[in-house]
Amino acid sequence: MTRKSGPRPRRVPQRTCVACRQEQGKRELVRIVRTVAGPVEVDPRGRKPGRGAYLCRNRACWEQALRRGTIEHALKTTLSPADRAALVAFAATMPLKSVVSTRAAEDSSGDSAVEIRDNELT
Ligand SMILES: [Zn+2]
Fold this sequence. Notes:
By secondary structure, the chain is α+β, with helices and mostly antiparallel strands. Helices cover 22% and strands 20% of the residues. Helix 1 (59-68) runs antiparallel to helix 3 (81-91).
């Protein structure tokens, strides 16, 4: 996949993973939100109000972000032990991927673009 310039369809909103800084379609990422009430939560649907940050569906990114405090930095907050524990638990459900395959939705067929690729070692 070349990432050269050129007109690429911008149908999918792009977000940047706070750990690896890779830009991906919003649906490829998991949103974490600092809710208005205060606690930080995983927001799988990406629609809770509050300040959000995005991470890949890749355990490495989660672990890195938790270890380095990237999430806290991005959300401008401090994780409570409970919030952190919840994020760690969620991170454990993320697939381990050595390579993040950027097969972004180049087709325009909407829903069928969702595709979790599980190539551990290629
Ligand atoms: Zn990432």
